[in-house]
Design a protein that fits this description.
This protein is of the alpha+beta class and about 200 residues long. The protein has one domain: Imidazole glycerol phosphate dehydratase, domain 1 (Ribosomal Protein S5, domain 2). The chain is built from 4 helices and 10 strands; from the N terminus they run βββαβαβββββαβα. β1 (about 5-10) and β2 form a beta hairpin. The longest helix has 20 residues, at about 160-180. The two termini are about 20 Å apart.
């Protein structure tokens, strides 16, 4: 079964389109109007081996908040839709990523139960045009709308760019591992019989 989804989200503040193929080659075409944010989604796709297209237009004349949030919401919705009933998936996975002096760890459980824990400190208010206060919100929005447990932390690091990049790379790698099909499993990976 193909595992892909197309989400279109339109509000009075933004218009976002996300196409996601879980069984891709890591191809990304991301255009949000926020250069560093585009860069981070490129890492998620590349390291998750997802084919990902994101087109977003928003009220960047106000600030980047609405665009950043709605892209994360739409990605979470696309992930949830592409997973379908979640039959046969590995379900739980984690990834450690070092980026020079920074080390990040991301753990996911595609349980159907949304919950996010984010533990990272940034020393600057912005990386490029992306407010660092929005990075936890991105992870929380993915968890809520993708229906997964998502724990993300930066253990240490000096450079905020490196810390953020390690987090997004680890997110891609953890999602890649958790969304893989386990050939030994015939149903959903839960003793409850559903996720």
């Amino acid at each position: 079964m193909p595992r892909h989804a197309h989400i279109h989200r339109k509000t009075n503040e933004t218009e976002v389109t996300v196409s996601l193929d879980l069984d891709g080659q890591g191809d990304a075409d991301v255009r949000t109007g926020i250069g560093f944010y585009d860069h981070m989604w490129g890492h998620v796709a590349h390291h998750g081996l997802f084919n990902l297209t994101i087109q977003a237009s928003g009220d960047l004349d106000v600030d980047e908040h609405h665009t950043v949030e709605d892209v994360a919401i739409a990605f979470g919705q696309a992930l949830n839709a592409a997973l379908g009933e979640r039959a046969g998936i590995v379900r739980m996975a984690d990834a450690w990523v070092a980026m020079d002096e920074a080390l990040a760890h991301v753990v996911v459980d595609l349980s159907g139960r949304p919950y996010a824990v984010f533990d990272a400190a940034f020393s600057t208010p912005k990386i490029g045009a992306l407010g660092t206060s929005l990075i936890p919100h991105v992870f929380e929005s993915i968890a809520a709308h993708g229906r997964l447990n998502l724990h993300a932390r930066v253990l240490y690091g000096r450079d905020d760019h490196h810390k953020a990049e390690a987090l997004f790379k680890a997110l891609g790698r953890a999602l890649d591992a958790a969304t893989r099909i386990d050939p030994r499993r015939t149903g959903v990976p839960s003793t409850k019989g559903m996720l």
